[in-house]
Amino acid sequence: MFLLPYRVMSKTRLLFYSLLTGVAYSLSVSNLPDGFSWGNLAWIALLPLHRVLLNVTPKQGFLRGWLAGFFAFTGTMYWVVVAMNLYGQVPLPISIAIMFLLTTYLGLFVGVYAWGVVWMEQRWANMAWVLAPCLWVSLEFLRTYVLTGMPWGLFGYSQFQWLSIIQIADITSVYGVSFVIVLTNVTLFLGLRWALAKTLISTTLVQPWKPLLASTVLILGTLFYGSLALTNDSSLPTLKVGVAQANIDQALKWDTAYRIETLQRYGRLTKAMASQSDVIIWPEAATPFLFEQELGYQTLVVDMIAQAQVPLVFGSPMLRRHDDGKPYLLNSAYVLTPQGKLTGRYDKQHLVPFGEYIPLKKILFFLDKLVVGIGDFHPGTGPTLLSIPHGPTNESIQIGMAICYEVIFPDLVRRLAKEGANVLVTITNDAWFGHTVAPYQHFAMVVFRAVENRLAFARAANTGISGFIDASGQVLKTTPIFTEQAITHAISLSGPSTFYTKYGDVFAWACVIITVFLLWFTRYFRKPTAVDTIFQYPSPRLRPKE
Q1: Which of the residues 73, 278, 362, 497 has the least number of beta carbons within 10 Å of its own beta carbon?
Q2: Tens of pLDDT along 302-361?
Q3: What is the rounded CA–CA span in Å between residue 392 and residue 47?
Q4: CA distance 539 to 536
Q5: Which residue spans within 364-484 are E strands per DSSP?
Q6: Is this prediction's pTM over 0.85?
Q7: Those residues with Cβ within 8 angstroms of residue 294's Cβ, 6 or more apart along the chain or in another chain
Q8: How far apart are alpha carbons 310 and 533 in whole angstroms?
Q9: Which positions are annotated as active-site residues?
């Protein structure tokens, strides 16, 4: 049976339970456009994983956790193959190998989680339920930074549609939601395990009442806080934003013969929005040329904005040179006024590995850059706000800009808010993802950046999803992917600063400290219970046979 702790588990059974966790995890963090909330699976996704951790050593727990994590992240990140092969022209076998290399690496984090749970169960069983969510958050936090960071598909993102549960992100960031989910999974498993064991045999297991009480209080407290936070302040000033989604095919985007058609599309969309907008936003690298250098095409854009009489925020690559004359590129966002002046520029800080640069280039020398025909990019120097005039007095509005991949990093967006942004904008080119789940996953992360900083977000994506999100994470308006559309909406400007904006990842660091302490303590002090582990029977004769 599912919850009984067999001494030996068949390989088929192990594979099945690991796959169950992997599928449930990957579905839960994927915002599939089918109307069903797959995020509900997150609340039970770890039950099969904990099933395979019964009566194993920490080393075995690590391997089983890694297997479940490998399945989870392969299902979550399969789109890497599409991006690299279909659009990056990387051979299919190499694309698949790179995807498996990535998911093998990401699976290690789940493996360490499983190792820690088994370790704690064998040394201080009554505290294993405390370690589990703290360890999970610590590993997600580590994943955000190690090897330049890859915090794609964090567990908390599964709940982006459940507004009342995610409002705690303005204190804890997305990590707090992950904490609640993991604690609930562990509590459910302990409760089911204890209840079933009591009906079958007479033995003493760690009782689930403490974790059950803690989970109940935490969930109710989270929902209560969320209900209070969802009270909208209608007195805040608003900004009317227009977003252009030109839907330029990635295969044609950098084709010089297609430049005029690209600009004509943006011209039509801009004209349609001009009368309803205080600012218009084009996506990342919207101009398929070097805006500052290629004056002929630059003039066409300047004329469009002069006719629209609305400031434009848009993405364009920028060429610069080192002291030795060697050229390099920056992925930049500009502000262009109706008078034809560039009044601000932000250079992307966090570049996409294999997209804008090759990490470990001496080792991976055989790989060309994914962005065909552009070249290696260099990172910008730090957070820079973009200013636009607003209202009859031309009051300056400060825009915090995150370009594409940057929006998945909570602290990077937090620093923009802390610098004094009144509104947040992200521009991206998700055409690389094709018709996969990745654009939906990417969009869900923006919801959390809005909640964390209590700032509304406008998102302009070349092929979608484009849209608007208010400061509480409510999705106001979106576009379908791979359509040409112009949409406008009035979004609120800044309200009160949040705890997370002011102080950063205090919650995540607290989880790290608790995790380190518990693992260190149990390294030297072991506190066995009447049952040596949470999930073992006191004697072999009481174990059911397979």
Answers
A1: 362
A2: 999 999 999 999 999 998 888 888 888 899 999 999 999 999 999 999 888 777 777 766
A3: 58
A4: 8
A5: 385-390, 395-403, 423-428, 457-461, 467-469, 475-478
A6: yes
A7: none
A8: 66
A9: 284, 348, 404
